[in-house]
């Protein structure tokens, strides 16, 4: 009898050690899952929309939310994701905007190994397939090539002489999928308009201050430019500041992409020609809703056809003709999103 009691005590001790862990204090996994988003920064109005949308969704369903920012540091992004998984005991559902396309693979390996469901937006290597990772619910994006084509076309329409002129351009991070697609769209338009010269471009890393400095330098080298194409609105705002200081505001127009409030104001006042509105609030809510549904067993990821694992949804083209309506619908008000149909806005599958 004493031997049995001693043996029982040893078993209890072993399990107690496992439950307590190295710290010697018990940490029970949270009863309810945590929602988490990993994004680049909160200094960008567009990225802030992710946070606003995620907070509204978390409040609506009564779950805690953690907001992680990479600050354009891929290593920090992955470290923070691993820490979130450890902190929650893996009881978390993720929406992620990878810092670079190459970040998607280590993120996928980390979360798949931990059994954590997640949805990514924008950037991943084209050869990497979501369905090779059981917990990678979906990768979603807006059509970047179409955005580049639209903003380039609108910009060329503002040139003093149709089909003739010089433009400069600002790319974002060169490793980002949306930047590459928007750049491709610009070059498609330029190939059909040989009278328009792209005299210089710089990579401003999606950053407003760097865009201002780069535009200022390019204007010194090319003071006779007729337009400025940029891959996002933050950089567009930096370019507008440089144009204002050079006395070229409203004479040389700018285009961007994302649809931040300042860019809408710039279009209204004649400083910018066009942008493309990407609804960051909807992006965050859809990503979190899909990941949570998979975690809760309400969405059978393995049964989804490939076209629903990698797909694009349409964005909204914005110019002076419709900017007031867009501001009313998406900025002054927030649409009611139908999150019961994850594929309601589906437009095309990614290869």
Indicate the radius of gyration in whole angstroms: 24 Å
| The CATH H-level homologous superfamily of the largest domain | Response regulator
CATH architecture of the largest domain: 3-Layer(aba) Sandwich
3D shape: elongated
* Biggest sheet overview: 7 strands, mixed
- Per CATH, the class of the largest domain reads Alpha Beta
Entry keywords:
Rossmann fold; 2 domains; 351 residues; six-stranded mixed beta sheet; alpha/beta
Write up what this structure looks like:
The protein is an alpha/beta fold and 351 residues long. It has 2 domains: 34-143 and 279-315 and 335-349, 3-Layer(aba) Sandwich (Rossmann fold); 145-277, Rossmann fold, CATH 3.40.50.2300. It has helices spanning 2-20, 45-61, 74-88, 104-114, 144-156, 177-191, 208-221, 233-245, 261-268, 280-295, 323-331; strands at 34-39, 65-69, 92-96, 118-121, 136-142, 165-171, 196-203, 227-230, 253-255, 272-277, 310-313, 316-319, 348-349. A 7-stranded mixed beta sheet has the order 2-1-3-4-5-11-13, with helices on both faces. The longest helix is centred in the N-terminal third of the chain and has 19 residues, at 2-20.
Secondary structure layout plus pairing:
Layout: H1 2-20, E1 34-39, H2 45-61, E2 65-69, H3 74-88, E3 92-96, H4 104-114, E4 118-121, E5 136-142, H5 144-156, E6 165-171, H6 177-191, E7 196-203, H7 208-221, E8 227-230, H8 233-245, E9 253-255, H9 261-268, E10 272-277, H10 280-295, E11 310-313, E12 316-319, H11 323-331, E13 348-349
Parallel strand pairs: 1-2, 1-3, 3-4, 4-5, 5-11, 6-7, 6-8, 8-9, 9-10
Antiparallel strand pairs: 10-12, 11-13
Helix pairs in contact: 2-10, 3-4, 5-6, 7-8, 9-11
């Amino acid at each position: 009898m004493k031997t049995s009691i001693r043996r029982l005590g040893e078993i209890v001790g072993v399990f107690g050690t496992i439950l307590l862990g190295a710290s010697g204090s018990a940490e029970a996994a949270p009863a309810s899952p945590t929602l988490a988003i990993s994004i680049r920064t909160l200094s960008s109005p567009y990225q802030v929309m992710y946070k606003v949308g995620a907070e509204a969704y978390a409040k609506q369903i009564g779950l805690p939310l953690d907001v992680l920012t990479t600050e354009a540091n891929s290593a920090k992004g992955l470290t923070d994701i691993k820490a979130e998984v450890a902190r929650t005991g893996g009881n978390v559902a993720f929406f992620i905007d990878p810092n670079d396309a190459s970040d998607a693979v280590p993120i996928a390996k980390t979360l798949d190994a931990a059994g954590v469901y997640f949805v990514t937006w924008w950037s991943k290597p084209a050869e990497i397939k979501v369905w090779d990772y059981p917990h990678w619910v979906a990768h979603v994006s807006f059509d970047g090539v179409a955005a580049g084509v639209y903003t380039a076309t609108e910009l060329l329409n503002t040139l003093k002489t149709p089909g003739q002129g010089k433009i400069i351009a600002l790319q974002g991070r060169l490793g980002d999928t949306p930047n590459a697609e928007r750049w491709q769209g610009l070059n498609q338009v330029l190939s059909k308009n040989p009278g328009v010269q792209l005299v210089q471009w710089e990579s401003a890393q999606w950053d407003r201050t760097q865009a201002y400095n780069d535009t200022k330098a390019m204007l010194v080298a090319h003071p006779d430019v007729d337009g400025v194409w940029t891959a996002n609105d933050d950089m567009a705002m930096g370019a507008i500041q440089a144009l204002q200081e050079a006395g070229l505001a409203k004479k040389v127009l700018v285009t961007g992409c994302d649809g931040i409030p300042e860019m809408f104001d710039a279009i209204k006042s004649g400083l910018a020609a066009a942008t493309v509105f990407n609804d960051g609030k909807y992006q965050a809510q859809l990503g979190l809703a899909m990941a949570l549904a998979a975690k809760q067993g309400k969405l059978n990821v393995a049964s989804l056809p490939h076209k629903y694992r990698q797909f694009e949804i349409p964005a909204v083209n914005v110019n002076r003709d419709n900017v007031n309506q867009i501001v009313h619908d998406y900025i002054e008000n927030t649409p009611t999103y139908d999150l019961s149909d994850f594929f309601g806005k589906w437009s095309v599958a990614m290869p």
